[in-house]
Amino acid sequence: MATTLKGSGVSPGTGYAAAHLLVGSIPEPPKGAVHDGDAAAEKARVQAALEEVAADLEARGERAGGEAAEVLSAQAMMARDPGLADGVDELVDAGVSGERAVYEAFGAYRDLLAAAGGYLGERVADLDDIRDRAVARLTGAPMPGVPGDAAEPYILVARDLAPADTALLDRNLVAAFVTEDGGPTSHTAILARAMGVPAVVGCAGATALVQGTLLLVDGATGEVVIEPEPAAAQAAVATARARAEALSGTSGPGATADGHPVPLLANVGGPKDLEAALANGAEGVGLYRTEFLFLDRADAPSEEEQQAAYRAVFDAFPGGRVVVRTLDAGADKPLAFLPPPGEEPNPALGERGLRMFRRHPDMMAAQLGALARAAEGTEAIPYVMAPMVATVAEAAWFAEACHAAGLETAGIMIEVPSAALRARDLAKVVDFFSIGTNDLTQYAMAADRQVAGVSELQDPWHPAVLDLIALAAGAAGAAGKGCGVCGEAGADPVLACVLVGLGVTSLSMGAPALPWVRASLARHTLDQCRAAADAARSAPGASEAKEAARACLTGLGDLGL
Ligand SMILES: C=C(OP(=O)(O)O)C(=O)O
Ligand SMILES: [Mg+2]
């Protein structure tokens, strides 16, 4: 019988082909290796190798273009990082050989990134790739990489994939990606989605697979079947194709089967995500996570740089709504230049989001100023919202600051239970709500988003979370204001119907989910969505809520949901 490995599905679709294991990890240069005594020459040799690596990454990016070009030029910047070069020089000055110095200096930096976790932690694969490329150049070993000359489609299996590996892959030859490491925000996931290649990450046991083993990969469920029964595998691929056709058959603005409009918007991290948002028919942006502009750098971006990034996003949606969230630093998104004021035993409950602006009002003024200038003369409809709002006073303070900066439409995220519980008071001082179900679930269930051991509790289907959403959406509706959802819950095509039934007025999600949610809403009436919402809220737990909602949603079948 076929065995199955399980990981996280991060790019939907089905692939069936032979595994190609990415080997070629570079051996660790021996501990204690020393150079011949000429430190200056050794430093120059290392510097030249790092520069060659950076230039090669850039050249690959230029050949690949699009999103890959941005990712690879960011990686090239890492290779030219002066801090890393200083670390290498120090070791070489102490006699360490160039390749060993690269290995150790990168290792120290790697530990820092890994400890930071979240987005930064997932840059570790990029850093390791630079290290391996530099060591390969210094020792004359062959470069690590993917097959450039495959004749048949294959499934690329690796510990993790660096952007340089994936950038030049031929989409027609890669049936799927499977990686042992990596999370939903790793580069494997981001690039797989951009390429439209099915992908499973965090798949334990993947790197122990034998080269050439036939695999059936489901990029939605995260299942990787080893040596599946060929007829069943071919049928799965055919079903996936039929499903993709059903999806592409639903187009236009989001609406239920009986015509209740539900604008479908995209979550973006910056201009690089616009292509996918537009390609998937986003009607606007429901969450622009501006902190991505602030990550991976030593200083805050200038007002001009911010203004240009915001303007690029506004310009992509003339006539559409663009909801920009002000900086959500802290907890899972730490910023090097804005450390918390002291030790935070629970960063998720610490100084993050809008709370940080209380201590740095200058940063808020700079961001709102840049936003106001970017909004001048735009044809988009600019909305601005603050993350992590817990009280009416915070919401009123933020709305006033937006208005003073010349930004008309100011809202807040509802992601703290206190905000959902007292939404009727908050609705008096802001123009709209956007529910962040990721954090709302974290705080309602007291289950840290970053702690894998409690991930079962991190389920937005839990009726306690649904009750909070109903409270917020109801309060917004009573005040005549909009209430969207921009957390991951909105990307679940079944839960999306429930959210609409709870009174949510728009849904925002990562671009690849848009066709699924559009198709799912189009197959159900508003009454069915309301019935599903009532059934889910009446259930005692998350799995029962899901089951009860599904029983009310009769149109899921032809989407294979
Ligand atoms: C959308 C949300 O914000 P983030 O995931 O960026 O914290 C959320 O918390 O649901
Ligand atoms: Mg949040």
UniProtKB/TrEMBL annotation:
| Gene name tied to this protein | ptsP
Give the species.
Herbidospora solisilvae
Its taxonomic path starts at: Bacteria, Bacillati, Actinomycetota, Actinomycetes, Streptosporangiales
Q: Which GO terms describe its biological process?
A: phosphoenolpyruvate-dependent sugar phosphotransferase system
Q: So which residues are the signal peptide here?
A: none
Q: What exactly does this protein do?
A: General (non sugar-specific) component of the phosphoenolpyruvate-dependent sugar phosphotransferase system (sugar PTS). This major carbohydrate active-transport system catalyzes the phosphorylation of incoming sugar substrates concomitantly with their translocation across the cell membrane. Enzyme I transfers the phosphoryl group from phosphoenolpyruvate (PEP) to the phosphoryl carrier protein (HPr).
Question: Which cellular component terms (GO) are annotated to the entry?
Answer: cytoplasm
InterPro entries per UniProt: PEP-util_enz_mobile_dom (IPR008279), PEP-utilizing_PTS_enzyme (IPR050499), PEP_util_AS (IPR018274), PEP_util_C (IPR000121), PEP_util_CS (IPR023151), Phosphohistidine_dom_sf (IPR036637), PTS_EI (IPR024692), PTS_EI-like (IPR006318)
> From the Swiss-Prot or TrEMBL record, what is one GO molecular function term?
metal ion binding
Domain PEP-utilising enzyme mobile per the UniProt entry, residue ranges: 152-222
Q: Which PROSITE patterns match?
A: PEP_ENZYMES_2, PEP_ENZYMES_PHOS_SITE
- Please give the name of this protein: Phosphoenolpyruvate-protein phosphotransferase
